[in-house]
Amino acid sequence: QVQLVESGGGSVQTGGSLKLSCAASGYIGSYNAGGWFRQAPGKEREGIAAIYTGTGTTYYDDSVKGRFTISLDYAKNTVTLQMNSLKPEDTAMYYCAAEYTMGGILSSSGYNYWGQGTQVTVSS
């Protein structure tokens, strides 16, 4: 059974940083891609970053480009999201996903496996 477990969420002030981790069951390289998504109250889930495990090619939504960095740790089987220069509008539940199958790589409908989420709150 595939399990993805997120950690690292919390509360920070504007301009602060957080590092989210997504621990996968099994070897992370067995998944073709990993992604990070977020969902704020009353809004749809949106893709913010993704990475192909084979090539390391990354993709970012414009809202986080230049501030967030997605990366892989093959030794720990994790997908991490380093978030810098956080803004109040980054406040949301953050989810990791794995095994991209269809549609745009930042599309939430394109992934087979999901974690339970970790809350990020940014105060002004």
Brief summary of the model shown:
The protein is mainly β. It is built from no helices and 11 strands.
Rg calc: 13 Å
Low-pLDDT runs: none
* Helical stretch tally: 0
Number of strands: 11
- Strand and helix order: EEEEEEEEEEE
> How would you sum up the global shape?
globular
Quaternary state of this entry equals single chain
Strand content: over 45%
Share of helical residues? under 10%
Give the biggest sheet: 7 strands, mixed
Structural commentary:
The protein is mainly beta. 0% of the residues lie in helices and 51% in strands. The strands form 2 sheets. Strands 2, 4, 5, 6, 9, 10 and 11 form a 7-stranded mixed β-sheet that branches. Strand 4 and strand 5 (46-52) form a beta hairpin.
Helix-strand layout with pairing:
Layout: E1 4-7, E2 10-13, E3 18-24, E4 33-39, E5 46-52, E6 58-60, E7 68-73, E8 78-83, E9 92-100, E10 111-114, E11 118-123
Parallel strand pairs: 2-11
Antiparallel strand pairs: 1-3, 3-8, 4-5, 4-9, 5-6, 7-8, 9-10, 9-11
